[in-house]
Amino acid sequence: MFKATTVIVQTSMDAMKTGWFSEINDFWPGVSLSLELENTLHREKSQYQDVLVVQTKTYGKALILDGIIQCTEKDEFAYQEMIAFLPLCSHPNPKNVLIVGGGDGGVAREVAKHPNVERIVQVEIDSTVLEVSKKYLPFMGVGLNNPKVTLNVGDGFEFMKQHTKEFDVIITDSSDPIGPAECLFQESYFSLMKTALKPGGIVCSQAGTAWMNLDHVVKTFQHCKSSFAIVDYGITSVPSYPTGQIGFVLGGLSTETNFKVPKRIFTEEELDEMNLRYYSSEVHKAAFVLPRFVEKALKSYRTT
Amino acid sequence: MFKATTVIVQTSMDAMKTGWFSEINDFWPGVSLSLELENTLHREKSQYQDVLVVQTKTYGKALILDGIIQCTEKDEFAYQEMIAFLPLCSHPNPKNVLIVGGGDGGVAREVAKHPNVERIVQVEIDSTVLEVSKKYLPFMGVGLNNPKVTLNVGDGFEFMKQHTKEFDVIITDSSDPIGPAECLFQESYFSLMKTALKPGGIVCSQAGTAWMNLDHVVKTFQHCKSSFAIVDYGITSVPSYPTGQIGFVLGGLSTETNFKVPKRIFTEEELDEMNLRYYSSEVHKAAFVLPRFVEKALKSYRTT
Fold first, then answer.
1. Is A274 part of the contact surface with chain B (CB cutoff 8 Å)?
2. Which residues form the active site (chains A, B) (predicted)?
């Protein structure tokens, strides 16, 4: 039924067809994901990074920052739904939410769906990403125009210094710790988020893949634990990310927080109304069940 | 800390360094995983397929058949442990096990660990894979030498016609449905497995990734359901497979089978003794919790 290609072995990438984008980075050495392109929709060097939007053959539109795939139309929902609903559904009443980063708008789109959320403040450092997403990636950019959202262009670090005890949930949707986002994985960042939270507050940060960067996952986990009573690591499947999996470090101020058991359970009808394609309460619980090698690496640091 | 590469955008794969293996196949169009190579350890055209063993830079040794990555040293345990222990731990007493395919030996290695398993019969069509694995991939090939294992070189289809009501569990560890393994995904194959099983028997077959081949997953699921009372689909994370995820279709003859709840629960000490790095009872249960878009696609066919 399926014709195996005749090009079965490449001893060099030179042998491949032209017209592919390849992600190559020292953070995941020796492995590279490539997407076949239809065309480039936009490319611009912003104040902070190289911003590229492409139309791929089978993954839809894709946003690429400094050569790293941030999201593709095919699978971005798995990431956005999980980074939003894991913390939101772990909080008894998430009214005020801060999003740091997330310039494409996908996280804001998901956070705004939660019925308890009244106000979303978003701080994105790179205005070019906001503009590009609104123009070329409307399926995510739409989130930025939600009436619940107040957009700030600036440094999340500086913003939080001016806002104490203001938020129920802080979501950090950053790029990887190899460019402008490096500071968002440090201990000082987690301790600053703590001051910006209301009592019982929760944080959720993109924290990389255990398959490739286990040391980095453990380190981010430790940093979170130094400021939060309850810490956990949840995972989701995202094919266009390195190793096809990404994880989130979550921290809770209250010892009553238990990320493994969602406080808010949505019915199938509610999930349908919110157009959730990945997240459910069962998926929430399963996200914190980790492969043994990951469980072991985090064991001495895990709080539950 | 991490230096972003200066090669940030490839409009063509020609721009990449030489010395990479790239997986390109019509079964997952528009996307390609590449592994950087140290050297080629062996290459041979067998009676059935192109057999290639390479030493990669960061994924260890890898077996590649007809240009498709079958397993890498870095992550093969996630696949082998799950395809073996999901069915074995769903059966009350899995004494006799048939493995169809699995020529690298990884599945036999895992099946032999289960304390109830007394006898493993393996039928692999390509003797070259067996020889190559024993010689170049001893971390998997060792499974073929286990005293519980009886090896047969031949066609699993033909073998089963001669063996009725003989096995408690049948595991089909095949390559993808685009070459010699195509027949192992058909309805007739599931109905033949049924005849080779003892009462209460269970089957588990590699069934591809829902992210890329949802139609194929649904079709394999339907074929299984036409012969088995209880059917389910479980998933695991394997970075070197397309989309970083692969699933298994499981079928049970008895209505008392419930794949979601393992019958055999191993202690942490037992899991350590068996050197299980991925599988645990909690991972077992979580494997059957599916993203909503997969759950919906299978909903009308699922039995539990």
1. no
2. 173
Interface confidence, given as ipTM, is: 0.93
Residues A209 and A148 in one domain: yes
Domain count, chain B: 2
For chains A and B, CB pairs below 8 A equal: 244
Helix (H) or strand (E) holding B299: none
A10 domain-assigned: no
Which of B28, B57, B72 is the C-terminal boundary of a domain?
B72
How does pLDDT run along chain B (304 residues), one tens digit per residue? Answer: 222 332 333 434 433 346 899 998 888 999 999 999 999 999 999 999 999 999 999 999 999 999 999 999 999 999 999 999 999 999 999 999 999 999 999 999 999 999 999 999 999 999 999 999 999 999 999 999 999 999 999 999 899 999 999 999 999 998 777 666 777 778 899 999 999 999 999 999 999 999 999 999 999 999 999 999 999 999 999 999 999 999 999 999 999 999 999 999 999 999 999 999 999 999 999 999 999 999 999 987 666 5
Same domain, B176 and B131: yes
Asked if B262 and B280 touch (Cβ cutoff 8 Å), the reply is no
Beta bridge partners of B18: A12
Residue B146 counted as domain residue: yes
Q: B4 lies in a domain?
A: no
The CA distance from A114 to A177, in Å, is: 29
Q: Are residues B38 and B173 in the same domain?
A: no
Contacts of A3 in chain B (CB under 8 A): 26, 178
Smallest CA–CA separation between A59 and chain B, in Å? 8
Domain CATH for A237: 3.40.50.150
Count Cα atoms within 13 angstroms, Cβ side, for A271: 22
Structure tokens at B256: 């008392």
Domain containing B57: what range?
Answer: 20-72
Nearest CA distance, B304 vs chain A (angstrom): 15
Q: Are residues B186 and B158 in the same domain?
A: yes
Cα(A136)–Cα(B242) distance, integer angstroms: 27
Asked if the structure places residue A6 within a domain, the reply is no
* pTM beyond 0.95: no
Question: What size, in residues, is chain A?
Answer: 304
Distance from C-alpha of A53 to C-alpha of A138, rounded to nearest angstrom: 12
A213/A221 Cα distance (integer angstroms): 12
A68 and A196 in a single domain? The answer is no
Do A114 and A28 reside in the same domain of the chain? no
Closest to A243 (Cβ–Cβ): which among B8, B36, B239?
A: B239
- Do B157 and B66 lie in one domain? The reply is no
**Taking Cα atoms as reference points, which of A171, A53, A189, A195 lies closest to residue A112?**
A171
Same structural domain for residues B58 and B100? Answer: no
Residue whose entry in the numeric block shows the structure tokens 């169009």: B29
Q: Is B269 on the interface with A (CB under 8 A)?
A: no
Give A 171-230 residues with CB within 8 A of chain B. Answer: 176-179, 182, 211-212
| Terminal alpha carbon distance of chain A | 49
The C-alpha atoms of residue B118 and residue B4 are separated, in whole angstroms, by 52
Residues in chain B with CB shorter than 8 Å from the CB of A50 are: 8-9
In CATH, what number is assigned to the domain containing residue B64?
Answer: 2.30.140.10
